[in-house]
Amino acid sequence: MWKFIFKCFSFLLVGAVIYPLFLVGWGIIMPVQFKSNLINTPLLGFTSEKLAELRRVSQPDILFLGSSHAYRSFDPRIFQQSGYRIFNLGTSQQTAVVTNWLVDRYMDRIKPGLVVYVVDQGMLTSSGVESAVDIMLNDSMGLDMLRLLSDVNHINLLNAGIYHLAWDILPLSKSHMIQKFNNKEKYISAGYSIYLKDSSKNKFVIQKNKLALSKVNIFKFQKIILNLKKRGISYILVTTPFTKDYALKRRSSALFNFADYGPYTDFNDEIKLDDNTHFYDAHHLNQKGVNEFNRYFIRWMEDNRIIPLKGKK
Amino acid sequence: MLFNTLDFAIFLPIVFAIYWMLSLSLVRQNAWIVITSLVFYGWWDWRFLFLLISSALVDYLVGIKLTSTDIEKHRKYWLWLSIVVNLGLLGFFKYQHFFIENFVSAFRLFGYTLDVRPLQYILPVGISFYTFQTMSYSIDVYRRRLLPAQNFTSFLAYVSFFPQLVAGPIERATHLLPQFEKERTFSYPNAVQGMRQILWGLLKKMVIADNCAAIADPIFAEYANLPGSTLLLGVILFAVQIYGDFSGYSDIAIGTAKLFGFELLQNFAFPYFSRDVGEFWRRWHISLTSWFKDYVYIPLGGSRVGRWKIIRNVLVVFLLSGFWHGPNWQYIVWGVWHALLFVPLMLLGNNRQYLHPVAAGKLLPSFGEITRMVITFSLVCIGWVFFRSPDITSAFEYLRIMASPSLFIIPKLEQEAMTFTLILLILVFFSVEWWGRESQFALGRLEGWSSSVGRWAVYLILLSMLGLFMKAEDVPFIYFQF
Q: Mutate which of B419, B464, B465, B474 to disrupt the A interface (most A C-beta within 10 Å)?
């Protein structure tokens, strides 16, 4: 039996060396169709550009966190017109696990005046693997990435980490990791991405998502709230507008009460937008919708004294 | 706890290490198996442990009572108690909804509305497997093929043995129980074979089955809007998915058992290389089909009766087999379909004409063998449409569209690159299965390789394939729902 145990350990050691080499070789040689667990076709949202810009940002008036509902719904140019400097740290399919990691990594350095956490059930039900891989590939490598790896605990994330580390060490081009331009969206600034079209092909199609709440995500969400309070950072929780059908479906399958964790506003109850004019798809605004929503949002924040009034330009 | 999770990867080495440290005491080893198996099962839902232990206790006591009397009437009474309790549990938890809904529908046909509502509860995982396993014990003790278990610990270990508890293979008491009642010694070659089988099982499930599911599921969900060629692809991928999923689980179960010095029954023997449906049923879910053969078919008379009774016996077995899979009419239709394919072979005496692996000792099959394999696979796939569809109407509609002229247009695919990659993976997978078809499992053939460097290279490549192609989202094992 000792021979068996010894052989198993030896194999694990050899595997720990060979596997990363194999992975990197595979990443260099194979076309992108065979690398779904390595770099998975880049998620939307320009995470690389966003995080690179974040390193130059300090003390924005408002920092937005959350999924694509965050980074597609708040246009920094509109806020700038009202005198507010914002940054959008939303990323595609960002779950509470990933948000918690971003808060731990950036909050002490950035010190925002207010955090607007865009919340929705999806961030508590998804595994967050793709979102975590997005961060692992596009953010700078550090020891805290090991915590992200242990929190999400998936082989794809390990692969992404090995791949990114190898690309940092080897003199290879990272152009395939950087999403400068694609035919669906454009990066503006301060973390905001704009859809190039006003509406998608399957505008009103509502995808079925699994609805089981993840204990890990709930735990991390609670930790985010505690961390913000501990750091003395003001925050609000919001849900951005959706089309009527989507909002109804979401409400009928609600499993979690965000209002238990702080000031929460569902803007589906506050603002009436037109499904045909203001939405790109069932749960994302187009630029017309963003314009309308952001103007309303700024007025709402000022009226409710959530943020100090700034001189308007 | 699932086999393909980090939890199990931590659980297994700990259980393994302590198990072999206890090797000087058989009682302690069996007790350790019981404890760890109950932890394994309770990981899903601890509430159903009571059910498992109760079912085992009933059959253990029945076993004692069966040997404490020679009065045939009393012995039959005890046997029926075991059957009623086990089938009663199965009927209550698994089939209650089916019977109540069909009962209500039948009354509605005559214009009566009944207000009968089935109870809402979760189906206990593995109930279809362990109830059959404990029934086999009672029946074999009744038939005097087996002495009753020496003590409750060894019996409970036999019932709850974690590698095969939730999705088989359905073990026979005559095969597995004696292994709990004698000393086990660690065997290096067996342990290595076990690890190989676990690796191959993980690959089948996490690379092949899960990736097939990602493409087949949307096809079955949107079949009404897709051309026949896409539906054909969908059913082929489902056929590969269910094989990869179920045989993968069996491989992991059998391989894990080998680590502990146990031999479990082979459950799959390369069924898609079958040359007719008779051979297919000797190679697919072997533990279930042999259970029905020994405990239903043969007691009904088997093949030693007249033609019509043979047909009846075959129909009963396939109907029960379909019904075992689930309380839905489409599983029953699936069973009937296979009965219709099997009966002609039976009546012509051709159901056992292919007893050896196809092209045994040769590199490639003949054209005739390929033709027979393709025809058999096609017939089996027709059955899978019923198995996979949500209801019978959808299944017939699926088949109708598949057989329409749209079968000859280019398939409409949402994920073309992924489908292309998957087809390549499937071709490589079946090539390896073909290469290893004369062994108990494909990778088993590596045992004959003298070069350890060569063997380790294969393992590392397969592990890398796991890392590169496993799905991000967990896909449950199909047979857990049964």
A: B464
Sorted by sequence, the CB contacts under 8 Å of residue B198 that are 6+ apart come out as: B251, B252, B255, B256
Q: Tell whether A157 lies on the interface with B, counting CB pairs under 8 A.
A: no
Cα angle A261, A267, A268; round to 5: 115
Tens-digit pLDDT profile for residues A243-262: 998 888 888 777 789 999 99
**B233: alpha, beta or left, given left = phi > 0 and alpha = psi -120 to 50?**
alpha
By three-state DSSP, how is residue B351 classified? coil
List, in sequence order, every beta strand (DSSP E) within chain A: 62-65, 86-88, 114-118, 185-187, 193-195, 234-239, 264-266, 279-281, 284-285
| Closest to B74 measured CA to CA, from B86, B84, B62, B85 | B62
Crossing angle for the helix pair B127-142 and B49-68, nearest 10 degrees?
10
Please classify residue A265 by burial: count the beta carbons closer than 10 Å to its beta carbon, then call 0-12 exposed, 13-18 middle and 19+ buried.
middle
User: B57-101, pLDDT tens digit by residue?
Assistant: 999 999 999 999 889 999 999 999 999 999 998 888 888 777 777
Q: Could you confirm whether B338 is annotated as catalytic?
A: no
DSSP β-ladder status, A193-195 and A86-88: unpaired
A213 shares contact with chain B (CB less than 8 Å): no
Instruction: Tell me the β-bridge partners of A238.
Output: A118, A265
Mean pLDDT of all residues in chain A? 86
The pTM score is: 0.84
What crossing angle do the helices spanning B329-348 and B307-325 adopt, rounded to 10°?
A: 150
| Average pLDDT in chain B | 90
Which residues in chain B have Cβ-Cβ distances shorter than 8 Å to A9? none
**ipTM for the complex shown:** 0.83
Q: Say how far apart CA B295 and CA B273 lie, in whole Å.
A: 27
Place of tokens 């000393």: B183
pLDDT band at A96 (very low <50, low <70, confident <90, very high): very high
pLDDT in tens, B8-40: 889 999 999 999 999 889 999 999 999 999 999
Angle at which helices B228-259 and B6-21 cross, to 10°: 20
The amino acid that residue B81 corresponds to is L
Q: Which phi and psi angles does A236 have, rounded to 5°? A: -135, 155
Please give the order of strands across the beta sheet that includes A62-65: A86-88, A62-65, A114-118, A234-239, A264-266
Q: Which residues contact B79 (CB under 8 A, 6 or more apart)?
A: B62, B66, B138, B139, B142
pLDDT at A119: 94
Query: Per-residue pLDDT tens for B35-65?
Result: 999 999 988 788 888 888 988 999 999 999 9
Q: d(Cα A185, Cα A189) in Å, to the nearest integer? A: 13
User: Please, are residues B52 and B159 in contact by the beta-carbon 8 Å criterion?
Assistant: yes
A18 part of contact set with chain B, CB < 8 Å: yes
Q: How far is CA A18 from the centre of its chain?
A: 33
Q: Which of A140, A218, A216, A131 is nearest to A174 (CA)?
A: A140
Which residues of chain B are at the A interface, by a Cβ-Cβ cutoff of 8 Å?
Answer: 6, 20, 186, 188, 191-192, 195, 417-418, 420-421, 456, 459-461, 463-464, 466-470, 472-474
Residues whose CB falls within 8 Å of the CB of residue B475, separated by 6 or more in sequence, listed in order: B209, B210, B213, B214
Nearest to B6 by CA among B249, B14, B195: B14
Ranges of residues in chain B whose predicted pLDDT is under 70: 114-121, 472-482
Q: Which two tokens stand for residue B468?
A: 């590169």
pLDDT surpassing 60 at residue A142: yes
Alpha-carbon dihedral A279, A280, A283, A285, rounded to 10 degrees:
-60
